[in-house]
Model the fold of this input.
Amino acid sequence: MAVNLLDFDLEGLAAYCESLGEKRFRAVQLYRWIHQKGESDFEKMSDLAKSLRSKLAGAAEVRGLPLISEHRSADGTIKWLFDVGDGNAVESVYIPEEDRGTLCVSSQAGCAVGCRFCSTGHQGFSRNLTSGEIIAQLWFAEHRLRRGTDGERANATNDTRVVDNVVMMGMGEPLQNYAALVPALKTMLDDHAYGLSRRRVTVSTSGMVAMIDRLREDCPVALAVSLHAPNDALRSELVPLNRKDGIDALLDACVRYLDKAPRDFVTFEYCMLDGVNDTPELAHELVRLVKGRVPCKLNLIPFNPFPASGLKRSPRERVMAFARILQDAGIVTTIRKTRGDDIDAACGQLAGEVQDRTRVHERLVRSPVRVIRREAPRQETKA
Ligand code: SAH
Ligand code: SF4
Done:
């Protein structure tokens, strides 16, 4: 099969061009055509040497992802479903806001972590996406919207950037697909490609400690950690991989990450589940856990229900009360606005199409999460 040029960051493309006997500056030209202009036809890359164009023809291609469907929400959110072969599909979501456009990108077909409250987790895991399949989501969204004629952005011209913020919060656990993730991140950041600042690219993780350390060395972008609980007993029920490292080690990794991070805080995401993790006692326990230890912001996400989860969204007043306790303790706390829920594009609703080889869904429904309402605070289980 032809080499997919979307698989390469600039270094990779330069090495590939060198293997064809071409100089590095040719790779820069090619990279700019692909990512800045959205061009996939080598013949149209007019200032690219004829000799390179003919070497590329047949040997290489710019292979995007086949689009299965596009859904547009009343609030302007757009969800795309892409075919990644073998019956699997992944989703990306574009969220326009007043001052910026955010793209939520998938990293895997399915997810092996299997969080109780996540529709992707219930689908099981099929496979990692390649770097090309990760960056193809941005390549597609950026150039489709830029060329769009139906006013996604009133002032969009052919060269105005449309996506100025990327969050790795679609399907999959990005740090479980590290080797493919990093070149894709590098292309997002590269001035010859999308030129996003490191603050405008966020990796969201369920908390893989060793990989957080590697990301800090290889490509420190903004970090979001899906915490969801202030103690190990509850977190291990909600996010099974917590059993491996535990919260203590996770928070230490967050502190180490901040040495190199483009922002001076980590964002903790906390999905508000009715009667599970939303009590005032747990809010106080969360304050005790992070305050003075990890510079952080808290982002409370109203749970987006899906039938198989057996869980419910916390009532608005409980979310507000939880937020108030954190804010009163001096922790900057936001409540995420739910966008695109009329097209099932909200956080955790991305299900795509996953040929579930792990049968995780059956395991999850056989042992549903205990819905508990505690009167007394849980004991912290810090080691
Ligand atoms: N695997 C990564 C990134 C993808 S999930 C991670 O877990 O961080 C992106 C965010 O959506 C995470 O914070 C996740 O906890 C949250 N999420 C998952 N399912 C959800 C649901 N049903 N409702 C609201 N948020 C959800
Ligand atoms: Fe995977 Fe993230 Fe969903 Fe957990 S919340 S199952 S880590 S995608």
Notes: The first strand starts at residue 3 and ends at 4. Residues 117-119, 169, 173, 204-206, 226, 269, 271, 301, 303-304, 347-348 surround S-adenosyl-L-homocysteine (ligand 1) (CB under 6 Å). Confidence is low (pLDDT under 50) at residues 151-156, 370-383. Residues 135 and 206 are 21 Å apart (CA to CA).
